[in-house]
């Protein structure tokens, strides 16, 4: 895959993930909420309790997700964007993100960022690097925090409706469907959200340059501190 196409994919990924993309449920949606799901209280805020058929404003939904997902030791996720699979780890407490893609890896801790291509060693991020892959990874490092579901949720717009339930990581989840907009791009999104607004998976679909762009995200490890350290 050419570097320029990969760079376009990263930008599209950012636009889609900013609206919060999510992977399909592990079991078909039910007509009614899963047993016991309604008995769990929502976060201590104005977040409403979720129920079958309920509608939630996108901005309010985003605020509830951010609140719920920031209060965790850390988590890991896998994503698929334009057929490109990546893995990521997040530590909200240390403002740390690590992302591994087929083209290379990046680590961001606070204001510091490092990158490495599939054939290079770790180096300080440099968006102006003469190496196009290093430059692309470095540009990605500048917006890596925006791919964190807890941060990305803050850009949600529109309305979302509870359309069913499922299970994810052993927890009951509600399926919230809606259309959000990021930088003028409309994205159809389905969230898998626990009753206390933790997003465990998302799927997003949009059209860009005549092409259907599908994105999925799945949390693979939740509330576990990730070992993200500076490589240099």
Describe how the helices and strands are arranged.
Layout (H helix, E strand, L loop, with lengths): L2 H15 L37 E3 H13 L4 E7 L2 E8 L4 E6 L2 E6 L2 E6 L5 E2 L7 H11 L6 H4 L6 E10 L2 E12 L2 E9 L5 E10 L2 E12 L10
Antiparallel strand pairs: 1-8, 2-3, 2-12, 3-4, 4-5, 5-6, 6-7, 8-9, 9-10, 10-11, 11-12
Helix pairs in contact: 1-3
What would your notes on this structure say?
There is one protein chain. The protein is α+β, with helices and mostly antiparallel strands and 232 residues long. 19% of the residues lie in helices and 39% in strands. It has helices at 3-17, 58-70, 132-142, 149-152, and strands spanning 55-57, 75-81, 84-91, 96-101, 104-109, 112-117, 123-124, 159-168, 171-182, 185-193, 199-208, 211-222. The chain has a twelve-stranded antiparallel sheet. Mean pLDDT is 80; it is low at 1-43.
Number of helices: 4
Strand content: 35-45%
SSE class: alpha+beta
Report the average pLDDT across residues. Answer: 80
List the strand order in the largest sheet. 1-8-9-10-11-12-2-3-4-5-6-7
Global shape: globular
Low-confidence runs of at least 5 consecutive residues? 1-43
**Quaternary arrangement of the chains shown?**
single chain
What characterizes the major β-sheet? 12 strands, antiparallel
First-residue to last-residue Cα separation? 29 Å
Q: Which sequence of SSEs, written as H and E, runs from N to C?
A: HEHEEEEEEHHEEEEE
Radius of gyration: 18 Å
- The total of beta strands comes to 12
The level of helicity is: 10-25%
């Amino acid at each position: 895959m050419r570097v320029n196409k990969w760079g376009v994919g990263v930008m599209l990924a950012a636009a889609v993930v900013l609206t919060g993309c999510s992977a399909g449920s592990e079991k078909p949606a039910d007509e009614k909420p899963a047993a016991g799901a309604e008995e769990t209280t929502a976060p201590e805020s104005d977040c409403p309790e979720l129920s079958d058929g309920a509608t939630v404003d996108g901005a309010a939904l985003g605020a509830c997700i951010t609140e719920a997902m920031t209060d965790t030791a850390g988590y890991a996720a896998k994503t698929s964007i334009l057929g490109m699979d990546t893995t990521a780890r997040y530590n909200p407490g240390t403002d740390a993100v690590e992302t591994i893609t087929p083209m290379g890896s990046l680590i961001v801790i606070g204001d510091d960022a490092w990158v490495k291509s599939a054939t290079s060693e770790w180096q300080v991020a440099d968006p102006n690097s003469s190496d196009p892959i290093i430059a692309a990874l470095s540009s990605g490092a500048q917006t890596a925090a925006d791919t964190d579901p807890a941060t990305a949720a803050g850009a949600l717009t529109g309305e979302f409706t509870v359309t069913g339930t499922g299970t994810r990581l052993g927890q009951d989840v509600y399926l919230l469907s809606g259309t959000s907009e990021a930088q003028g791009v409309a994205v159809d999104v389905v969230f898998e959200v626990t009753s206390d607004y933790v997003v465990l998976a998302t799927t997003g679909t949009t059209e860009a340059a005549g092409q259907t762009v599908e994105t999925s995200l799945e949390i693979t490890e939740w509330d576990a501190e990730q070992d993200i350290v500076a490589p240099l």
